[in-house]
Write a structure and sequence with these properties.
The complex is a heterodimer of chains A (288) and B (270).
Chain A: H1 2-28, E1 30-32, E2 39-41, H2 45-52, H3 56-90, H4 96-102, H5 111-122, H6 128-135, H7 150-175, H8 179-187, H9 192-220, H10 224-230, H11 241-250, H12 255-287
Antiparallel strand pairs in A: 1-2
Chain B: H1 3-32, H2 52-58, H3 61-94, H4 99-111, H5 114-127, H6 134-158, H7 163-170, H8 175-186, H9 188-203, H10 207-212, H11 220-224, E1 228-229, E2 232-233, H12 235-255, H13 257-264
Antiparallel strand pairs in B: 1-2
Helix pairs in contact in B: 1-12, 2-12, 3-6, 3-9, 4-6, 6-9, 7-8, 9-13
Classes of the chains: A mainly alpha (288), B mainly alpha (270).
């Protein structure tokens, strides 16, 4: 009986998700170029080639720097904003319901548009940032055209768009914390900072870890900023793994190799998720 | 002025400043879209403001076509995933299936990078002669809308007490009737919110549309890449188009804002 309700959705998911996933893996086991049409079986040859590629360590370093740095900054800023807005909501200040909604608007903007905004802001001569810096008499960095700065410029754009995601989840978490525990701590003479550090943050940990998992997964799968702004350059200073997968399949049309890189991205995402889930379960056990 | 009052004003000022900061990029791009083409992106000079960029974009057939395509593909995927997810969610919650396992499976689906799926989609649709069609694009969107719908709707259904439907079943209603005519209307507002969120996810998709569509079904976001010329992007037209493009999700969200806060407990103040 239950099956007849679930079957249509399951069949759809098998057809559009499980089957393509397997097909993709099968492609990754072949040497296949859409340009020359050459197609032959190599088993794990593509994977071996990826791991023997001397540029892989650099690509991994760039990928992890980009993801970990932006997610860490988003977490810190999001937490700060969540406490700020909660303070306003608690005191029933009239501006705060609106502030809360306005703070979420970047989430509505398509990531690709966001990338175009920042490509324009970062433009070395006529970009907003450099025109503003010049008007103030300050030096004008090259932003995304400077190989030492490009990755961090992308991190800034990422943090600017996705901090609101962390903020909105953490604020919902903060607002649903039971009030009596905090009251008890206050009666015992704990200061505001002590309450945040010793009572609220530990209680917030499960929500915090869920938000971290979601952001980390999405950040490792992210493509838009690199695709629009730097195309992996200058040099290969911003070539994240996910962009390498895109470039190999859809600019060089080496789809076998591209599919293999895509699965390496997938593996990386799974490792990150498993590590976070472990942390989550551990913290859940400690609390009981 | 008392210390408490100045504290409150400081708090409000900090909040407003933060909101202004995060609103800045889209707002600035919209202001920028009013500038002459060679001034777009830099500091604004309001004496030069005009609607020229908008006139230019509105005159292009491909612009309107791409918006239509974005809308059709998103609506198709959203409606299909809601219709498939409602019975699935009912089955999952009413026949004692372990929802925790379902949640993990759905997290697993979310972990698959789009780039893994988009390649087989391209090859499959090429073989089926479905490249550059709206249904093909809608199908690719189901990969993320369907799991999201199932998960959201199942968690709403879980909160609906079982005795409501037992009465109907005693009256001889079949499980299908109960699912569609009793349980679904109760969760109606929440399902609508889920649908709107899914619409926004599809509307903002770029990667699937870039690979699956090319001409007659091309959606707005991949179209933007064609505004990037060798000498640089046509920011004026890109930002003018972007302003129009942001309106539908914005309006949809304003319309369902109240429902959204009910569905997700956004207004809880403790």
């Amino acid at each position: 009986m239950a099956l007849s309700f679930v079957a249509p959705a399951m069949a759809t998911l098998v057809a559009i998700f499980i089957y393509p996933l397997c097909y993709s893996f099968w492609i990754s086991l072949q040497r296949w170029s859409l340009i020359s049409g050459v197609r032959r079986w190599t088993a794990f040859g593509n994977y071996v080639a990826i791991f023997n590629d001397p540029t892989l360590p650099k690509t991994l370093r760039v990928t992890l720097t980009y993801s970990l740095l932006s997610v860490a900054l988003e977490l810190g800023l999001g937490l700060l904003l969540a406490f700020l807005v909660r303070a306003g909501i608690r005191r029933r200040l009239p501006a705060f319901p609106a502030i809360r909604v306005l703070l979420m608007t970047p989430l509505l903007v398509a990531p690709l548009l966001w990338a175009f905004y920042f490509r324009s802001f970062y433009s070395p001569q006529f970009g907003l940032f450099n025109e503003a810096l010049a008007a103030l008499g300050l030096p004008r960095p090259l932003w995304v055209n400077d190989p030492h700065l490009a990755l961090y410029s992308l991190v800034i754009a990422d943090v600017w768009q996705w901090t609101p995601f962390m903020f909105s989840i953490l604020l919902s978490g903060l607002l649903s914390l039971p009030g009596d525990v905090v009251e008890a701590a206050r009666v015992d003479g704990a200061s505001d900072l002590q309450i945040i550090r010793l009572v609220e943050l530990p209680m917030l940990k499960p929500v915090l870890l869920v938000a971290l998992i979601m952001r980390l997964i999405d950040s490792l799968r992210y493509l838009d900023l690199v695709l629009v702004i730097t195309q992996g350059g200058p040099g290969n200073s911003t070539e994240i793994l996910n962009f390498l997968a895109y470039r190999t399949s859809f600019q060089q049309f080496e789809v076998g190799r591209g599919a293999a890189v895509a699965f390496v991205v997938f593996a990386l995402v799974m490792i990150a998720a498993v590590v976070m889930l472990r942390l989550m379960w551990k913290s859940a056990h400690v609390r009981r | 002025m008392s210390a408490a009052r100045s504290h409150k004003m400081l708090l409000t000022a900090a909040g407003l400043l933060a909101a202004a900061f995060f609103l800045f990029p889209p707002v600035w791009a919209t202001i920028s879209s009013l500038m002459p083409a060679d001034r777009v992106g830099g500091l604004a000079d309001f004496s030069l403001a005009s609607l020229d960029n908008y006139r230019e974009v509105f005159a292009q057939h491909q612009f309107w076509l791409s918006l239509r395509n974005s809308a059709l593909a998103s609506i198709g995927a959203t409606v299909a995933s809601t219709l498939l997810a409602i019975p699935a969610a009912y089955g999952l919650t009413r026949f004692r299936i372990n929802l925790r396992a379902v949640a993990l499976a759905i997290l697993g689906v979310r972990m698959v990078p789009g780039i893994v799926l988009v390649l087989p989609f391209y090859l499959m649709f090429r073989q089926l002669n479905m490249l550059d069609t709206i249904p093909a694009l809608s199908l690719t969107y189901l990969t993320f809308t369907l799991p999201f719908s199932i998960w959201m709707i199942a968690s709403f259904f879980e909160g609906i007490p079982y005795d409501i439907e037992e009465a109907a079943q005693l009256d001889g209603a079949s499980r299908w009737r109960v699912c569609w005519f009793i349980v679904t209307p109760i969760a109606g507002p929440a399902i609508l919110s889920t649908t709107v969120l899914n619409f926004i996810f599809c509307w903002n998709d770029f990667l699937f549309a870039l690979i699956v569509t090319s001409q007659k079904s091309l959606t707005f976001l991949p179209l933007l890449l064609r505004y990037v010329l060798p000498q640089g992007p046509l920011y004026g037209q890109i930002f003018a188009g972007a302003t129009i493009f942001i309106l539908p999700p914005l309006v949809a969200l304003i319309v369902i804002r109240k429902r959204l806060s009910e569905a997700f407990g956004l207004d809880t103040v403790k």
